[in-house]
UniProtKB/TrEMBL annotation:
Gene3D superfamilies: Mitochondrial carrier domain. It is a multi-pass membrane protein. InterPro entries: MCP, MCP_dom_sf, MCP_transmembrane. Pfam families: Mito_carr (PF00153). PANTHER family: SOLUTE CARRIER FAMILY 25. Solcar repeats lie at residues 95-178, 206-290, 300-387. GO terms for cellular component: membrane. The keyword Membrane applies. The chain crosses the membrane at residues 261-284, 305-323. This is Mitochondrial adenine nucleotide transporter BTL1. Keywords: Membrane, Repeat, Transmembrane, Transmembrane helix, Transport.
């Protein structure tokens, strides 16, 4: 029988008492213990009490014939966690990182609100729905769905672009600073090396462009975080009669294919995003620095940001457009009853049906959307960032 007795009344007190009740049959075994065994246990404060069956004194234990073996021990004091200091909330919201994320979100929302009709026409042409030219597709949308059709899927598009642009632009800035800081540190100190037998590899990677690495990381991370919203936006745009609302689209896609259906086409999206995102950010940053150096000025004005942003978007879109066509075909292929197994099969199918020019079908509409989108996004982003960071007194 095990019980507790002591001032603390529970485990963790300064002098907790453990009371162990043993059957009477073990008393004889206890009496035959050797002196050495008793001495070994002398660190415990032991008291042996034998009760008598004829004892009329009431006992708190239901069994009167027993041996009480009292062990008093002291537990160590409870561990104390180190004090964790969190910065004040107002300082967190005034940090550079938060300012960049918020600037990206605001820039993306304002850009998409203006350019939603071009995004609708571009998506229809890329996936092969309706007319094959911009004007024809525009008239077709107006006849079938009215003016509201030009903003089809714009709700989910806004929900998609706000976190996407916040994550993408915020990640770009953070990774670029981290890469520049690491390369400067490696220049001042010895670079990390990888030793494989007699072969020594230098891992300082000073030849890598921090802007290119940051652009690739921004595209990949934002895609992984926001890809389901891209799938929903495309379904609402291409088949509004099948997916009339966001809630119905989510329920139907999940019912048909589970959670994996919301990540349909993720692999080709990542494959297409890498060259686009890398080229997009690299071109803008390079042109910005070169232009400022040539003009001997520290920063761009709003019109120059708009122009350079548009040129960077045009270049990146032209390089990666065939991958974009294949990605869109894979994502909405299930709606037309034919879905190639992978990106290579999709590109082969497009070339077989429409020739090489089929890989650039809708490129004009894409440029009409990408160029103003890129330019306006950079213009709004730089403006919001200057405003928020300057207000927060961050250099």
């Amino acid at each position: 029988m095990i019980g507790g007795d002591g001032d603390g009344g529970g485990v963790g007190g300064g002098g907790d008492l453990l009371v162990v009740g043993l059957p009477k049959d073990l008393l004889q075994l206890h009496n035959h213990l050797s002196d050495a065994t008793i001495a070994a246990t002398s660190s415990f404060s032991t008291t042996t009490t034998t009760t008598n069956k004829s004892d009329n004194t009431s006992s708190s234990h239901p069994h009167q014939d027993h041996l009480l073996f009292h062990c008093r021990f002291r537990l160590p004091p409870p561990l104390s966690l180190p004090h964790i200091h969190f910065p004040p909330l107002h300082e967190f919201f005034r940090s550079r990182e938060v300012g960049e994320f918020v600037s990206g979100a605001l820039a993306g929302a304002m850009t998409k609100a203006v350019l939603a009709p071009l995004e609708t026409i571009r998506t229809r042409m890329v996936v092969g729905v309706g007319s094959k030219n911009i004007y024809g597709s525009f008239i077709q949308v107006l006849e079938q769905q009215g003016w509201q059709g030009l903003w089809a899927g714009n709700t989910v598009n806004m929900l998609r672009i706000i976190p996407t642009q916040a994550i993408e632009l915020g990640t770009f800035e953070c990774v670029k600073r981290a890469m520049i800081s690491a390369q400067e540190k490696w220049i001042q100190t010895e670079c990390p090396k990888l030793q494989i037998g007699n072969l020594s590899l230098d891992l300082c990677l000073s030849w890598l462009s921090p802007v290119a690495v940051a652009g690739a990381a921004a595209g990949v991370i934002s895609t992984l975080a926001c890809h389901p919203l891209e799938v929903l936006k495309d379904r609402l745009t291409i088949s509004p009669e099948v997916y009339p609302s966001l809630s119905i689209a989510v329920h139907k896609i999940y019912s048909d294919g589970g959670l994996g259906a919301l990540y349909a086409g993720l692999s080709p999206t990542l494959i297409g995003m890498l060259p686009y995102s890398t080229c997009y950010y690299f071109m803008y940053d390079t042109m910005k620095k070169s232009y400022c150096l040539a003009k001997k000025k520290e920063s761009l004005n709003r019109a120059e940001m708009l122009l350079l942003g548009a040129l960077s978007g045009l270049t990146a879109s032209t390089i990666s457009y065939p991958l974009e066509v294949a990605r869109k075909r894979l994502m909405v292929g299930a709606l037309q009853g034919k879905c190639p197994p992978h990106m290579a099969a999709t590109i082969s199918e497009v070339i077989k049906e429409e020739g090489l020019m089929g890989l650039y079908r809708g490129w004009g509409a894409s440029c009409l959307k990408v160029m103003p989108s890129s330019g306006i996004t950079w213009m709004f982003y730089e403006a919001w960032k200057d405003m928020l960071l300057r207000k927060g007194e961050i250099n």
